[in-house]
Structures are given as structure tokens and as C-alpha cells.
Amino acid sequence: AFEHIPRDGIDAAAGRIYVGSADLLLHRSNVGNVVVATPEPSISSTLPIQAASIKAVLLCAKCSTPLGSLQNGTNVRLFKHCLGTTAAIFHSYTSDSVLVAQMLEVIEADGFFRFDVVDEAAADGARRLRVQVLSWDATIQTSEFPTPQKVLKVLFAVEKVGPNESELPSKELTATAALIDDVVERLQRSATLLPSSVVAGMSKGSIGFLFG
């Protein structure tokens, strides 16, 4: 059975597939051909909050491509943009979709428009992707995208992880290093779509687009 999920916080149930904006939530017992990339945490019943926040990366058992995450031992989240199907039903999804879905939820629920995207397994010296959403209802159409695409117009910058010196409130989001790298590359490529007159004089980041 398929059910749409509006927000995080729903636990997987055996025999059901919950459909999110950019991912699918399944029970681990219903998922095969995946391997856990990092050792699963030992989940203590006395530490439910900490245990629920621990994730392990899931890889395809055949090609080792990251597919999603395992949380709390049973909740499997598979990113749509990582899944291939015979009918190619997920072909329009990209790595951007994962962040766009999270950002729109936060904007709607909490009113934050600034985000710090960090590696969920970050070590010293790791990068932070800082994003400020300028518009969440923009569309773009170019020779590369002949059909109008709905996008988030953002101001972005890549920095080393450290104290947040900005006095403006921001929301921290976590993602895998591979997803962050891919999103940064796509943002940098999308920034070239803007005329030079818009880019000139900017010192605190670049303007780019996240495709939802």
C-alpha cells in the first residue's frame, strides 16, 4: 500500500510504502539488495532520542551506489533520484529535490529562509553549504531546459565548518557528503545561467538555482 507523507516523524510499517516529496519510506524487512555502509549503532532503549537521530548510509548491494539511509534500525529512506525503474518514473528527480523538499517544509513550518547544510558524518575541516532562499516560486527556461522548470532561487556559499558568525537565524540540515558535493556542483553550474550584470559585485556568495 502507498501513502503520502507530509513531514518527517513517521515510522515505517511493514508492507507499506510512504511517499515523500523526494524519498520513499519503507520498513527494513521490505527492502532487499542493499547494504549498510557504516556499522549500525547499538540502539539503547534508555536513549530513544539519541538513537532516533542516528543514521547509516545504505548502498546498492550490486554497484555500491548510495541509495538512502537507515534510521533507528527499521526506517529505510530511499532517495527517488537514486532509483532506477523500468518505467523511469523517477527520472525527473535530482539531488536538489532532497534539499528542496526539506527547505520548503522548514519555510512553511518554521519560517526559516537560511540554511546550513552539513555532512552528517562531518569531521574537522569538512565543508558547510550555506544557502539563503531568495525565491521559492521562480521558474526557469533555457536551451538546456526547454520546458519551464520550477526552482528555488538561492544565494549560496561553501565554507569550512566552524562557528556560525552570522547574527541571522538559520536552520541546520544534514546530508551525505556525496549529495552535498553533487548539489554544490549543480548550483555552480546553474549560476552560469545568470547574466554577468547580476553576478558582478557579489562578495558574499553566488546566486544559483535548486531544481525541485
From TrEMBL:
GO terms for biological process: proteasome-mediated ubiquitin-dependent protein catabolic process; protein autoubiquitination; protein monoubiquitination; protein polyubiquitination. One of its GO terms (cellular component) is nucleus. InterPro entries: UBQ-conj_enz_E2-bd_prot. It holds the Pfam family HECT_2. It comes from the Eukaryota. One of its GO terms (molecular function) is ubiquitin protein ligase activity. PANTHER family: E3 UBIQUITIN-PROTEIN LIGASE E3D, E3 UBIQUITIN-PROTEIN LIGASE E3D FAMILY MEMBER. This is Uncharacterized protein. It comes from Aphanomyces astaci (Crayfish plague agent). The lineage of its organism: Eukaryota, Sar, Stramenopiles, Oomycota, Saprolegniomycetes.
